[in-house]
Amino acid sequence: MKAFLSTYGVVDRIVFRINVFVVAAILSVMSGIVFYGVIARYLFNAPLFWGEETARFLMFFLVLTGSALGLRLSQHPRLTMFVDLFPEHHRRKMIFLGDAIVFGTILVILIQGTELAIDEGIMRTPALRVSYFWIYLAYPIGAILGLMQLIGAYFAPRLADSVNDGAEETA
Asked: Which of 24, 30, 60, 156 has the smallest number of CB atoms closer than 10 Å to its CB?
């Protein structure tokens, strides 16, 4: 078991860092496209025909990959008002139950999102003429990352604690 947890810890850190990098890259590219689109439209009077569509699709990927990080870092919205009314040993069970429901929901997103990507792959986007398969692939990618981060929160909880503690110190 110790060897499994050690190996899992290494893989988990790699997946976490890749997830952080992907989210940061998507946000940077999306911001650059929107900024350049505004400059091109109002300063040069030459709007980008592909800018809005690309930014919209990047936002779609950003939400789905970023939500995986929110799960891992316990930054996703939770209704803890009722859970806090219970004793500590019941709270942990209720949090686990909530995570199990989230896990099940993510599994549904994974299955349905994969079917959607395959079924809608024949259609193309209006401006870029890219297959919607690549756009809807955000569902399974985000779901897989979400499942991995949710599992990681249980097997390697210290990673999230160290990230959250570092964020509190800089604030």
From this structure: 24
